[in-house]
Amino acid sequence: MDTGRDIRKRLAAALAPINDGTARTFIATMVSITSWRSAVALVLTLFRSLTQGAQLLLLVPLMQIIGLDVQQGSVGWLSGLVSSAFAAVGLRPTLSAVLGAFVVLATLLSAITWWQTIFNLRLEQEFVATLRRRFYRAVAGTEWLVFSKIRSSDLTHALTTELNRVGGAASVLLSLVTNAVLLSVYVALALKLSATMTAVVFLSGAALLLALGKRTRAARWTGQETSLATNGLYSAAIEHLGGMKTTKSYGAEDRTTRIFSDFTDRVAQMFVRTTRVYAGTAFWFSTGSVAILCAILYVSIEVLNMASAGIILLLFLFNRMMPLFSSLQNNCQAFANAMPAFAGVLSLLERCEAASEKKGGRPGREIELHRHVRLEEVSFSYGAEEKAPAIHDLSLEIEAGKTTAIVGSSGAGKSTVADLVMGLIKPTGGRVLVDERPLTPEYMDSWRDRIGYVTQDTFLFNDTIRANLLWASPAASDEEMERALKMAAATDFVSRLPHGIETVLGDRGVRLSGGEKQRLALARALLRRPSLLILDEATSALDSENERRIQRAIEELRGRMTILVITHRLSTIQSADVIHVLEHGRLVESGDWEALVSRMNGRFKTLSQAQGYGEADNGRRPSHDPRPAPEANLLSE
Ligand SMILES: Nc1ncnc2c1ncn2[C@@H]1O[C@H](COP(=O)(O)OP(=O)(O)OP(=O)(O)O)[C@@H](O)[C@H]1O
Fold first, then answer.
1. ipTM of the complex
2. Compositional bias (Basic and acidic residues) at which positions (predicted)?
């Protein structure tokens, strides 16, 4: 036989899935976000439960009216209570008064339920929206290096599906509290009627809960598996849709469809399993409830010889209580099922918050670029697993008002230098200085405000061109936008679009060609009138005509703006004031074009010759088309 300790242990095990740290954190988070609204929800629940209890009590005068004896035992006490309530409002418990009261209470109950439904839904949505905003802010504020190591599909999955499930958990929790309060009201009434019978029902209910505790654990397991399966489905969907062109060109549609189908099957399987757990529970509860109700009837009539009014009232009460046990069990399962989603969101959130970029500082911490950006013996490693640092003891200068180029083979560390200059990553050794001021967190907002950054991987919103431009510089006027578009050689194609600057761009700007997108991204950067314009392979998708136009525009900016060009293609940097050549994260050569191409056996000279720049005219005029197919780029190793 189970000892008290055994039962306590089993009870703790049954409740473990909803009573662990995650559940406690969930409740604490929900209460802290919804604050006083949680208290209002509780008060509404209490009102609703009391109204339902009062409605049930109206059975007592009704039984009296149809001729049952309601004066015996505890029913007599309840009958006295109801009569006093009627007397308090100056009525006698006649049939019409009782039915009238019933209608009033039913209307009140419907009104409270209606209000509670909307209130709880708002509460749930507010909770999820706040959590979602907090999550997004944490993600956006995460240090670049940490962010770049998190799978974007994990973040998308957490922000969408998983946070929806967390919202579901909030709703379940509210319903769990409602059911628990209602059950307490019924229990209080039942105790008044028959302590013995209530104890029997409670023990039976508890026994059922214990017996089905395994199912709550199963619900948590299916919850975990559902999180994994939907996460897999998300990343597969994102990867497969993003790579559809490659898939088609490889004729691999069937293969990717098969991979995708596996994920889909897994998700379907997990949902079926979850429902099976719920359905099993419902089966055992309804069967158990009937058995318990029969036992109650038997004991009340045969053993306790209870009066008929008491039996009817108890039957009504227990008939309402048993589904509440079942609902509680269901709530527990659904809550346990959603907890892995919350745990996953929380773990990502904590990871992002722990790696939050410490920037912002005090107002007035302005930084200006008047003289130069200087890298002083800078080293940088992406992680302990890296064999050699990405940047090694690098010292170089980006002079204000000049155009500086960084060239080098693929993986030489060019983009890492740009990230260091922007302060997106911190040197593991050495310093980055702006006008001899170390680039520390308190200057970061001011510094980034002064940067225009254009990459090869252009990112445009699914919105109008105007909105895309204003995103970078919200106060820009129409004239400024036009000027920026002109400087980026984008005026022609924008004016040819159906609605000009008001044209809505498709998903990631798909309606535009790669070169058009790059020109818009450049216009957006120029609109900020940056002190430092960083072009990281920014003209890689442009044809020679547009590249020349942009180069001309950039040349017109000379002296007004500091420009850092990172490129494979030497055609874009012929007029750069200084060219730095990187190799394996080290600086191997620096100088202007003439100086570098005239250096015997110089690395740059070799590179320029490999790209078709001959001896004639100081190696400026390519001996053949300097623009080979990108994959044949001769700077790549
Ligand atoms: N987020 C990252 N995590 C780990 N290693 C990285 C990361 N980004 C870059 N690296 C590594 O650092 C080195 C320098 O990369 P970087 O992107 O700066 O080179 P790059 O010269 O810009 O190359 P490319 O011209 O091909 O863009 C490479 O070996 C690369 O594998």
1. 0.96
2. 617-628
